[in-house]
Specification:
Length: 444
């Protein structure tokens, strides 16, 4: 039975980065990944980077066929780069194999050459998350039903597509396919989209997406999927009664859950939560000594940059001053890459009102920012909430071009307890979308 200092299961963002820091510090690492097309993790292969590359090319007016080819070239290059970033280290080995737990101390790996049992001083689980497929008759049996991963593998554009799910993934794909010229119907169970954001901005997003060609069936649910010779028929229960929708394809984007099924954690003492996530403490330790979990599989917020921050926590615990934990994670924002993008950080008005916390609201239309006119898309608005006394920023929502860049400036100010005046008085380059902060807080 072979023994290693460190075994990492899953080639995700946290796992591959941890492998680098462990080898840099002279430790031995075995990194196990069952799918050779997933070297580097979900982000670079099937999620953030390929989808955003497709979104950008859709907005540029690139043909779908060319966009898919560009995406495939990008992911292949990044996958190869990430593989060698680990495999070329003297103390690291990348093993392409299935991995499962035999007990708390033993892992069994399986590939074409057979099976082998392994042990390690430390075991790290970084297997990410997997799409949730709802239990709808006919859905799981149809060849025309896709997840975000499998849809990005399609070389042929679906000209008439339905999307089940009104969360970030569903909205991004709806916007992207509409930009490619497809007929898009988004089906959501909620009465409105983007319930976690400011309602007036969410309404503006829905209106703009409708103008771009997305049809919304909200407060609705698919009750049956029927295969046809060239597509599927969706039986949908809507507020206006039952409706049959004939489409080429259905994208299911109804959430993701921890990817643990193949690990056979039931053979171990490792505790899991109600969503199947591996339970960890603020230092990412499981209840079993020297077994850690990080990223989506540990119930962390499902963002690549949070998985990377999980690595920072472990790296700090092993090689730093041991002050970094999940409890003191820095302020972070999130973005939904629509047309234009929508970014948010902190709290919204409803949350502050529930807390009965005094606040001030600062708003301005995107059209007032010169750069939006230069870009040619003045849609959207900026909205920031500040503490009525200290003027520290409590939350922000930006629906505008390059919102994903401006929001990081606001997050940094929040993390360092800077008042809004610091952003108001900052000198920004021109023309940029971030210089909107000068005018946004001008009356403060």
């Amino acid at each position: 039975m072979k023994h290693f200092e460190n075994i990492i299961i899953g080639f995700g963002k946290a796992g591959k980065t941890l492998a680098g820091s462990l080898t840099k510090n002279g430790q031995e690492v075995l990194l196990i990944e069952k799918d050779p097309l997933m070297y580097g993790g979900t982000c670079i292969n099937v999620a953030c980077l390929p989808s955003k590359n497709m979104i950008i090319n859709a907005q540029r007016g690139t043909d779908y066929d060319k966009a898919i080819a560009t995406k495939n070239e990008l992911t292949a290059k990044l996958r190869n780069k990430n593989y060698h970033k680990v495999a070329d280290q003297a103390n690291a080995t990348v093993l392409t194999a299935d991995a499962e737990f035999i007990d708390d101390q033993t892992i069994q790996v399986s590939d074409d050459s057979g099976k082998e049992k392994l042990t390690a001083d430390k075991i790290f689980i970084n297997t990410g998350s997997t799409p949730i497929l709802p239990d709808i008759p006919g859905l799981k049996d149809s060849s025309h039903v896709f997840t975000s991963k499998t849809l990005l593998d399609q070389s042929k554009q679906n000209k008439n597509i339905a999307i089940l799910g009104d969360g970030p993934i569903g909205l991004e794909f709806a916007s992207m396919y509409a930009q490619f010229g497809s007929q898009v119907t988004l089906i959501g169970q909620n009465k409105t989209i983007l319930n976690q954001l400011e309602p007036e901005i969410a309404n503006a997003v829905k209106e703009d997406m409708s103008i771009d060609g997305v049809q919304f069936l909200l407060n609705s649910q698919i009750i049956k999927v029927t295969e046809t010779t060239d597509g599927i028929i969706l039986d949908i229960d809507t507020p206006n009664g039952k409706q049959a929708l004939n489409v080429d394809a259905l994208l299911v984007a109804t959430g993701r859950r921890a990817n643990t099924d193949d690990l056979h954690l039931e053979r171990t003492s490792i505790q899991t939560g109600h969503q199947g996530e591996i339970l960890v403490n603020d230092r990412l330790e499981t209840n079993v000594t020297n077994i850690f979990a990080m990223g989506d599989v540990a119930g962390s917020p499902q963002f690549t940059y949070i998985s990377l921050d999980d690595w920072r926590i472990l790296n700090n615990q092993f090689f730093g001053d041991q002050t970094r934990t999940r409890a003191n994670r820095p302020v972070f924002a999130n973005t939904i890459f629509l047309n234009p993008a929508i970014s948010s950080v902190g709290q919204n008005e409803a949350q502050l009102q529930k807390e009965e916390r005094p606040y001030q609201v600062f708003k301005m239309p995107t059209a007032g920012v010169p750069k939006s006119q230069v870009i040619g898309d003045p849609r959207g608005s900026y909205k920031v909430l500040i503490d009525a006394k200290t003027h520290q920023i409590l939350g922000a929502t930006i629906y505008a071009e390059e919102a994903y860049e401006t929001i990081n400036v606001i997050s940094l100010a929040m993390q360092n307890n800077l008042p809004a005046e610091a952003l108001r008085d900052q000198i920004y380059t021109h023309p940029t979308m971030t210089e909107a902060l000068n005018d946004l807080f001008a009356e403060l």
